[in-house]
User: What shape does this take?
Amino acid sequence: MKLLLASFKHETNTFSPVPTPTERFFGYRPTMVTAEAAIAAHRGTGSALGGFLTVAEAAGAQVHLAVAADANPSGPVHDEAYERISGLILDAVRQGGWDGILLDLHGAMVSQSHEDGEGELLRRLRAIDPVTPVGVTLDMHANVYDDLVRLSTVITGYHTYPHVDVREAGELCARVLVRAIRGEVKPVMRWANRPMLPHVMRQGTHAEPNRGLQAACRAHEDAGRALACSLFVGFPHADIEQAGLSVVVCTDARTDTHAEQALALRDELLERAWSLRHDFVYESTPLAQTVAQAKALGESHVPGQTGPIVMLDHCDNVASGGTMDTTAVLAEVLRQDLQDALFFAIHDPDSVQKAMAAGVGHEVTLELGGKSAMPSIGAPAAPLLVTARVRRITDGEYTLRGPMGAGSRARNGPTVVLQVGGVEIVVMSLYQEPADLECFYGVGVDPTRKRFVIIKSRVHWRAGLGDLAREVIECAGVGVTTSDYSLLHFEKVRRPIFPLDPI
Assistant: This one.
């Protein structure tokens, strides 16, 4: 058995000013990650590619990994990047002789020319090879279009957010595809969506409504009612026609009953999600009020309670396309004089270089962050003038411990830790959402020993820090991952759609 594998992943925030060139998909390294280097980088990791490789190798398959390309969320993918990376995949397809193809995609990729990036890739692939079975693993935040489903053999999605089951989703996809190649099953898929844009702050599987919906999907898979059952909450920060919640169910088409079952399970999940649409709505509290609330909690002594107060700067989450350099929350934390606090993190390569030039132990005055204007929400660049002491300088490289992405290497570029008043501030050259304890330990800071930990994250932080938090305070600052839809000008998304419209 010969299997072709590839990964091409991007969650596109169409409101983000952050560019997405080819280099972003490879950690701004000088070369692309392909072939044996890609296999070595992903074997045994918590990635979908890691899951593909485990199943493929257990099946005794010959494997070729065309490319492993994965970029942090940002603005639309540059056409040059889309063509170069998809070209590597399509060139491998042209070689022929494959028994199956496994694609690790996101499902919410928008390029400068294609609002359905994954569907365009499948259309091109099928123009070359219309018959080879294709398995696709998608992120829970996929915005699904018809061609993606129509042109695939099986689709699997994550059931957790934070995404701690990525490897498992890849393994399931690979197992179904291998069974299909062997003639043990004949996958058939049914899909549909509902006109709803769930707020990301209400999509976590640590709580309802999504916890129960994803549990139902897993139950259908575990009971054998479906080969794969996926509810995609969608990515709402994409002004494209099919943004929003959808369901894809895959069953065994060797009997009519199973084909009908796919429709029944799909409709059951969609109706349940629609009935819960109001529970997916998130409303913010004014910033000064939430920081004051956190300060009061941090200064109070509650017997038996330990751990930091975690404060979420959720409007500027890099893992949803944020610039990672807005300063509204940090400025308010400094204004209210929080002590024993850690802020993770500001993306500001220029400030990193100036701090490195000053050296550890020295003071430096910086215009910190605020380098990125955000015209889509009417927000100008707003740097924060600070005088800081340089506490630490690191290379910003470490290995994630998991459970999310365990074993994968993180590369944040040169990174510094600054002290301003009672706040330690991590400033980095590249981008990273703090979803793993090594994000902190790797740069020499310990969040467990702080009274306050302020992070630019929405939900993924719970993978590494969720069990440590004494309290969680959501702080609505400024950024293109805002949950205030009134700030986002939707022009292309299908209408009416909830909650933009009262339906």
